[in-house]
Amino acid sequence: MLEPFYRIHEKLLSGARVPIRRLLMDEIDWSHRLIALTGGRGVGKTDFVLGYAKELEVQRNLQSYLGKEHDLTPCLYVNLSDFYFTEHSLLEFAEEFVKSGGKTLILDQTFKYENWSKELLECYSRYPDLHIIFVALPVMQMDVDNTELDGIVKIYNLRGFSFREYLNLQAKTNLPSYSLKDILAHHVELALEINSKVNPQTYFDDYLRFGYYPSYLHQTHFETNLMRTINAVLDTDILIVKQINTDYIFKLRHLLYIMLSTTPSVCNVSKIAQQIGVSRATTLNYIAYMREARLLNLLYTTEKKNLLMEKDILRKPSKVYMHNTNLAYIVSDRKNTIQDIAETYFYEALHVRHKLNATDKGAMFLVDELHYFDVYGNVPHRDTFRYSAIYNMNIGYNNFIPLWLFGFLY
Fold it and tell me: How far apart are CA 295 and CA 269, in angstroms?
């Protein structure tokens, strides 16, 4: 039963292209027995787990070559969209895998398997020596929609390439990441050090247009393939997982087009609801789904602790951004301003590790409820006591920090 799956596994590993080791690889506690890898479409989740499988294989081969005993039995990558699982259960497969000595099972396309969360829990309970890593869509909320896994599964989010990762790939450098604390305190020294090796500004505009999604490495028609990814998010991730009537797909598409054409913008929910022809509550739901699916970023004030929901009523965001700048460029009939792109990038870069809020203190962003930030295309004419991220700046001074440097947070 397992042999065909091992053949597929070996073929995938032999052809796996892992151009860069992602920082998340070292942040995951791989000893945990049930791990969910989530992330938006197109960010390289399958390549990431195959990269981990390849590392396990390298470790196993090395220990065998050195004549050392080890328990690194071959792991197995399995795509749950395989037709085998229309008549056979995951539980049955896991039992056979464990009997054969298997220890690490990597599951992809999990959402296509019926009752996946219940069977994962059963596998977790029955086989204490089995480690399961499964790839999940971000709209598959483990803590809300699949409460049986709450407190058991460890969830990690893979994002697209940071500017640092993109720069290391393109310029063949090995630049490290920095904390926000380091950037705020030492941005001049850090920028000088990086510039001694490579000029980041010469790569920055290309990153903003197509560097977030790893698919740019393999595909010549980046915009066409990104459009396919967006449509897959709408037609599959949101429509099927959220169980929306297929008659409403055009309304979802219309809503996304409005966002693509206008963001960053204040969110006039009532007006948008009227434009797409659904209720205000449904519009808020659709916006929340697009946020979960990594198409939008939503900025809230701090008054209600930045909760998406308050007393079961979805809150209206203060401002809406596209999830990343590559998405912001996808509409051909829109001319993005430098300010639009700069704000979108700043949110994208900091939101990975930090909490961002809107503020009524005159600043554009409040970071971690501690630092007030402004974002500009060019250096303003007067100094400011607030931190300012500047698009057209290579090396900063005082509180003026190059925008590109925030791409070194991961």
Answer: 17
pTM (2 decimals)? Answer: 0.89
What tokens does 172 get?
């063949």
Q: What is the CATH number of domain 3-157?
A: 3.40.50.300
Q: How far apart, in whole angstroms, are the C-alpha atoms of residue 287 and residue 296?
A: 8
How far apart (Å, rounded) are the C-alpha atoms in residues 234 and 240? 9
Residue 90 CB partners (closer than 8 Å, separation 6+):
80, 107, 113, 116, 119, 120, 123
- Residue 383 confidence (pLDDT): 76
Helix (H) or strand (E) holding 155: strand 154-157
CA distance 373 to 399: 10
pLDDT in tens, 158-200: 999 999 999 999 999 999 999 999 999 999 999 999 999 999 9
pLDDT at 219: 65
Give the full edge-to-edge strand order of the sheet including 131-136: 76-79, 104-108, 131-136, 34-38, 154-157
Amino acid 142: pLDDT: 65
Q: Residues of CATH 3.40.50.300 domain(s) within the chain?
A: 3-157
Sheet with 365-367: list strands edge to edge.
Answer: 356-357, 365-367, 371-376, 387-390, 400-402
The DSSP symbol for 329 reads T
Mean pLDDT score, 21-29: 94
Angle at 212 between CA 143 and CA 375, to 5 degrees: 90
Torsion of CA 210, 323, 238, 120, to 10 degrees: 90
What pLDDT sits at residue 306?
45
> How far is Cα 206 from Cα 211, in angstroms, rounded to an integer?
7
Q: Summarize the confidence of residues 283-298 as an average pLDDT.
A: 96
* 3 state DSSP class of 366: strand
User: For residue 312, what pLDDT band results from cuts at 50, 70 and 90?
Assistant: very low
Residue type, 183: I
> What length does the chain have?
410
